[in-house]
Structures are given as structure tokens and as C-alpha cells.
Design a protein that fits this description.
The chain has about 450 residues and is mainly α. It is built from 16 helices and five strands. A three-stranded antiparallel beta sheet has the order 3-4-5, with no helix packed on it. Strands 1-2 form a two-stranded antiparallel sheet. It is globular and about 60 Å long. Pathway: Cell wall biogenesis; peptidoglycan biosynthesis.
């Protein structure tokens, strides 16, 4: 069999190893030059391209193209991405179940609806999970560009606490209400703090400036801490202070330079504890063990301990808690881990702790593979926020720390905290998705 005669001169085409040659246009003559895929023996260009191409989509099938595009929206080749995402979703799922169980009695007493708190938490989860996935798709440069805006928005929301919209709860003024919507802006401040320090610390460190220049990004951080501290929310202040120290550590700041913020933070905590009669009572009841005043400051830690102890190894069964019948304050929030231990037993408590350990491993793997300081600092700061707060909450329930009033991330009831935590995980997921790529 003979080939058809060529039209015009054959242009030179450099072969590319491992790839199928596609028809090329000879710029000098403007004539289509044949290649291996366009010869009579190959069966035509389109057929060969469909058999060997990456897309694998047949012509005339736009609906298949749409399905492939939608399926790749949240695709990632990083195992750290899936580990972090899966662990977070499991914790949210466990949290919804336990909020339903722990809040049923109080919800019924409040509005004759066993599912009131659960429905609110589920709505925030339905909003927060897509928000997390959306944040995971945002380019890394977005967080650098908008870091200042996040800080300003967070400070603006926190200022609403000190207006007539502010709400006092358990001696703290850290919420505001607009209509039927209640929010805790300090949760948004945590995310703004992590992004701000992650973006600004590498800039000051790279300039090799003076100590004042290196610590300059801490000025907005101190302002945010003081604003929360003015509302008497010492637990949140401690978490934010730990986040700030974590950012300095992951930025490579020396311990000598870190001693200044550490000393200021410890002094502030001691001062706020001394000037508050409620906090002093909690601290004295903690250090004055055994705590037997079950009608005063010891009420909550005592009933939390009794709830954990009554669960045994396998628990009393989901929904069968006795402590939630108005015996344990904040059963669906700060002390939800006690309900987990009571209803699901030691096994359930270990599962929850294990999930937070896996969460820690996921964060550490992302930090280890990070190729730019911003990724390392933000991921490390968010890790200390979520995992550190989780273990502080668990330590309080186990009576290893005095009562601080911090919730269990992803599990405790609280819409604003859930939204902020899921968004923070989304930020880290965006870094996990970009693993192995140098960010400039």
C-alpha cells in the first residue's frame, strides 16, 4: 500500500519522548503536516488521541465532561489532605450525636423541643463543611493578600461585644446578639490571629531587623488579646496566647526573644486570676483537693468526675446519661467530654482522644512537608489552637486543670466555634493540597 502524495514540504517536528505526536501547523507554508496519528494506518487523529489522551472523554459527550469536572473539584493527591479531612468530619459527626444526647433535656426545658440545640448545631455543620471545602480550594496567596482585612474584620466584630448588642454569660462578656442570631467573635479572632502571624512573621524575619522589628507583628496580636481579656474570657485569652507563642516558635524566633511575650502572658493570667473572685474560687477549689463543696465552685468538676466514673469501660449507653438531667452545667458544651465518658465509656473517650491524636499527626506531617514559612507558621498555630484547646478541655473534665471554660473543638455545641474551626481546617487543607509546590 502506498501513502498519498504529500502536499508541500514536510516541516521539521522534534519528537517528544513518551507522548503521541499531534498534527502541527507549518508556519512557513501554512500547510497541515501529517504525523503518526494522522496517517492512514493510525485510524485518524481523534481516535488515537482518545485512546492515549489523559482526559478519556469521547467527543459528543458533554455530560461526561461535566461529570469529570465536578468529580475533580475536591480532588487531591496528598494523603495528608485526606487524613485531616476525614478526621475532622468524624469529629463533627461524633459531635452532632453527642450534642443531641447531651442537650436534649435542657432543650426540652427551654422550649419543649428535645432537638432544639441539635438542629442549631446541625445547621452550622451544614454551613461549615462546605465553607471548609471552599477554603481548601482558595490559593495560598489569598491568605497573604487578605491577612490585614481579616484582622480588621475580627477586631470590628469583637468591638460589638462592648456595645448594647453584647451579652454577659457566666461572668464573661464575649458574645453579641442581633435578632435571634448569637455569635462569639473571639473565635473569628483566633483565625485572624493565625493568618496574620503566619503572613507577617516571615517578612520581619527575612529582613534580619532588630528585636523591635521582629516583634512588630505582635502589636495587633496584643490588641486582640486585650480586647478579649476586657470581656473577662480568660480561657480564650490563654488559647490565643498559646497560639502566639506557637507562631513565634514555628517562625524560628529564639527562646531569648520569646521570653518577653511569655513573661507578659504569665503576668497577665496571674493578674486576671487574682482580681476575679470567681476565678480565685475555682483555682483554690482545684488546689485545695479533695474538693468537697458540691454546692459551690466544686459542683461542676465534681459532677463531671462522677459522670466519667459512672461510665465504666463500655458506658451506660447512648442517650442514657444521668448527669445531663440538670446535674452537670454545660453538659453539651464545656463538659461534653464527661457525657461521652458516661454514655460511651472508656472506649468512647479513647476513640475521641485518638482522633485528636490523628489530627495532630496530620498537622505535623503538613508542617514537616511545608516548603515556605507561612505554611509552617499558620499550620502550627492552628494545630496549637484546635488540638491544644481539645486537650485543655479534656484535662479540665478529668480535673487535671481548673475550670477554664473552653469548649471541645468540633464536638461541643456552639455554632461560631464550629464555623471558625472548620474554616481553619480548610485553610490548612489548602496548604495540604499544594504540598510539594514552592510558594513564592
Amino acid at each position: 500500500m502506498t501513502h498519498p502524495p504529500r502536499v508541500g514540504p514536510k516541516p521539521f517536528v522534534r519528537p517528544v519522548p513518551g507522548r503521541v505526536q499531534t498534527p502541527s501547523i507549518a508556519r512557513s507554508t501554512g500547510v497541515l503536516s501529517p504525523s503518526r496519528t494522522s496517517s492512514p494506518h493510525s485510524g485518524g487523529t481523534s481516535a488515537a488521541g482518545l485512546r492515549t489522551g489523559d482526559a478519556g472523554i469521547r467527543p459528543g459527550r458533554p455530560e461526561m465532561l461535566r461529570r469529570v469536572s465536578l468529580s475533580s473539584v475536591f480532588r487531591s493527591h496528598s494523603s495528608n489532605y485526606y487524613m485531616l479531612l476525614g478526621t475532622t468530619l468524624l469529629l463533627v459527626f461524633i459531635g452532632l450525636i453527642m450534642v443531641l444526647s447531651a442537650s436534649s433535656v435542657d432543650s426540652y426545658l427551654a422550649d419543649s423541643n428535645f432537638f432544639g440545640s441539635f438542629i442549631r448545631q446541625a445547621i452550622y455543620a451544614v454551613i461549615g463543611i462546605p465553607l471548609m471545602l471552599l477554603a481548601s480550594r482558595v490559593p495560598i496567596t489569598f491568605w497573604r493578600k487578605w491577612a490585614r482585612i481579616f484582622v480588621l474584620v475580627g477586631i470590628g466584630l469583637q468591638l460589638l461585644v462592648y456595645t448594647p448588642l453584647g451579652i454577659d454569660s457566666y461572668g464573661n462578656r464575649n458574645w453579641f446578639a442581633i435578632g435571634g442570631f448569637t455569635a462569639q467573635p473571639s473565635e473569628a479572632l483566633k483565625l485572624a490571629l493565625a493568618v496574620w502571624l503566619g503572613v507577617m512573621l516571615p517578612v520581619t524575619m527575612d529582613r534580619h531587623g532588630s528585636t523591635v522589628r521582629v516583634l512588630r507583628p505582635l502589636i495587633p496580636a496584643v490588641i486582640m488579646l486585650l480586647m478579649v481579656l476586657a470581656g473577662q474570657d480568660l480561657g480564650t485569652v490563654i488559647i490565643m496566647a498559646l497560639m502566639t507563642l506557637a507562631a513565634l516558635y514555628f517562625a524560628g524566633v529564639g527562646w531569648k526573644l520569646m521570653m518577653l511575650p511569655i513573661s507578659l502572658g504569665v503576668s497577665g493570667v496571674i493578674l486576671m486570676s487574682v482580681v476575679s473572685a470567681n476565678r480565685m474560687a475555682r483555682i483554690l477549689s482545684f488546689f485545695g483537693k479533695p474538693c468537697l463543696d458540691d454546692s459551690g465552685a466544686c459542683w461542676q468538676p465534681l459532677h463531671g468526675t462522677w459522670a466519667m466514673a459512672s461510665g465504666g469501660i463500655f458506658g451506660v449507653g447512648l442517650g442514657n446519661s444521668r448527669a445531663k438531667w440538670s446535674w452537670l452545667p454545660a453538659a453539651d458544651n464545656d463538659y461534653i467530654f464527661a457525657i461521652i465518658g458516661e454514655e460511651l465509656g472508656l472506649i468512647g473517650a479513647i476513640v475521641v482522644i485518638g482522633l485528636f491524636v490523628v489530627l495532630t499527626i496530620s498537622f505535623l506531617r503538613i508542617i514537616r512537608s511545608a516548603q515556605d514559612p507561612t505554611t509552617r507558621i499558620i499550620t502550627g498555630t492552628i494545630m496549637v489552637w484546635l488540638v491544644g484547646q481539645a486537650f485543655i478541655n479534656i484535662a479540665v473534665v478529668l480535673n487535671l486543670l481548673p475550670v477554664l471554660g473552653v469548649p471541645l473543638p468540633f464536638v461541643s455545641a456552639g455554632g461560631t466555634a464550629l464555623l471558625a474551626s472548620l474554616t481553619a481546617v480548610g485553610v490548612v487543607l489548602s496548604y495540604a493540597r499544594a504540598e510539594g509546590q514552592k510558594v513564592t
